[in-house]
TrEMBL record:
The keyword DNA-binding applies. This is HTH lacI-type domain-containing protein. Pfam families: LacI, Peripla_BP_3. GO terms for molecular function: DNA-binding transcription factor activity; transcription cis-regulatory region binding. Keywords: DNA-binding, Transcription, Transcription regulation.
Length: 335
């Protein structure tokens, strides 16, 4: 591998001048910087980031921990985060917990071993956060991308409770009184969507019915298909259903198509996240929009603030991004 010394010998400059030129220092004349860059390209020079990290005590890397790498939404978030970080000269290290707390712990340990400058984390279980709190108190800049307020840790997230409340309220305004919910997250420390659903019902003077809340036991299209089969087998099935994500809703739409249930005439379906496929379903799906680009921008900006002020970090903040409803053909007035 070519070294700074090799470029210096080729250009007749000092190693220090070469180093400054490659970093774009204004102290070096433009023509000299260009001469150094040309020599570096000719020698196929690659910067030694490990050596630079030893000097600067920064690796220019950020760890991004997702809960499910197969999720279209989280893939979109990862893409937005990677673009934001790349524009700032950072590299993204990606890992997924896959719903397993042990895998989450291993991913965090890997980030630490790689000496990342900071972490962006979707926690698997919002009620199990002490390990993340300890990392933050130990000096690791960190921003959570989901959950409620956490002592000592910054959070930038979509207000999922507000999104579920607005979606349920919309269905109630359309005349529905038996509204189902397909969401198992409330059983695993993530109650925001279920709380919003219940709040909307109570505001309308409707008592929530436990039989109308189904745990899909997963997040995929197949899990949604099975959950709708259970809901619609009730002696008095719902006339509208809110799902925790669009994949569950798409599975529900497929079940309806297979079983002669017309959407929205017989059953209104409301998704969550507004992934690309939602607008192209056989019946275009109403959904709560998840602004991945905005969330990535705000989360990365906050993490950069924490990295710059690592010695004396500012007080933790909770940023709730307000959701918007995207209304399509899958929701309409009850018969």
């Amino acid at each position: 591998m070519a070294r700074l010394k090799d470029i210096a010998e080729r250009t007749g400059l000092s190693v220090n001048t070469v180093s400054l030129a490659l970093r774009g220092s204004p102290r070096i004349p433009a023509d000299t910087r260009e001469r150094v860059r040309s020599a570096a390209e000719a020698l196929d020079y690659t910067p030694n980031h490990m050596a630079q990290a030893l000097v600067s005590r920064q690796t220019r890397t950020v760890g991004l921990l997702l809960t499910d790498v197969t999720s279209p939404l989280l893939t979109q978030v990862a893409r937005s985060v990677e673009q934001e970080l790349k524009a700032l000269g950072y590299v993204t290290l990606l890992a997924a917990s896959n719903g397993d707390p042990e895998e989450e712990d291993r991913a965090l340990a890997t980030f630490r071993a790689r000496q990342v400058d900071g972490m962006l984390v979707y926690p698997h279980d919002h009620s199990r956060l002490d390990h993340l709190r300890r990392l933050r108190l130990g000096g690791m800049p960190m921003v959570l991308l989901a959950g409620e307020r956490v002592d000592d840790v910054d959070v930038v997230r979509l207000d999922e409770r507000a999104g579920a409340l607005c979606a349920t309220h919309h269905l109630l305004e359309q005349g529905h009184r038996r509204v189902g919910l397909v969401d198992g997250a409330h059983l695993h420390g993530n109650p925001a969507k279920a709380d919003g659903y219940v709040a909307a019902l109570r505001l309308a003077g409707i008592d929530p019915l436990p039989e109308l809340v189904i745990d899909p036991e997963g997040h995929s299209v197949g899990h949604g298909h099975a959950a709708f089969a259970r809901l619609m087998a009730l002696p008095e099935p719902p006339t509208a259903v809110l799902t925790a994500n669009d994949r569950l809703a798409l599975g529900g739409l497929r079940w309806c198509q297979e079983n002669g249930v017309a959407v929205p005439r017989d059953l209104a379906v409301f998704g969550f996240d507004n992934i690309e496929y939602a607008g192209y379903a056989s019946t275009p799906l109403s959904s709560v929009d998840y602004p991945a680009d905005d969330l990535a921008r705000q989360a990365v900006a906050r993490l950069m603030t924490l990295i710059r002020n690592r010695a004396e970090p500012p007080s933790p903040e909770l940023v709730r991004i307000q959701p918007e409803l995207v209304l399509r053909q899958s929701t309409a007035a009850s018969r």
